[in-house]
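job 3f2a | input accepted
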Amino acid sequence: MNKVLLSASILVVASVTALSAYAQEIKGDALAGSKKNALCVGCHGIVGYHIGFPEVHRVPKISGQGAKYISAALSAYKKGERKHPSMKAVAASLTEQDIADLAAYYETSGSATASVAPAEAAAGTVKAMELVAKGGCAACHGVNFSKPIDPTYPKIAGQHSDYIYVALKSYRITDKPQIGRSHPIMGGIAKQFSNADMKELANYIGSLPGELQTVQPSRFR
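job 3f2a | predicted structure (221 res):
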């Protein structure tokens, strides 16, 4: 009986491994993604667009962002690891293929006019540089904050500073049903900082040249 159970367990593990490998091999189609982004452009396709939840801030620039990060973020909203009612509803409506296609599209959209981040970010205020060092930001996001060491990490240079501030605060929130983000690394980092520290850090990162854009469809211009 033990041999039978062992064999069954091996089969289950093998099946799960095969499914995981299959999920990781889903290839995104940028052209397909360009036809699936109707729910995205209403916020992310309008230059300067603000939302009021959980506080007033600009929605993030996502054109030029890494595809694997976008996929990871959408999957986190879908699983509830990132809490945000609107984003959870959007992510819940997407298949894994949809997510891969949208990620491929936004990684390449607007690239013809994108700026190129310098090899190394310019220094900010003394306080900002102290905070960057304390948080170890460059260790994950790169010395120019546009070349993350892992493709599931975001480019952050030039991102809207008010969005960065809200995002950083959200990593400290673990007990609210509608807001908060579950991430062991970012959670530990964010808890080191006061709100004033986060705002200083966000203003510095947001002031840097980067590759992120908001690409506005012609019908919105």
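job 3f2a | The chain has one domain: 28-220.
job 3f2a | closed
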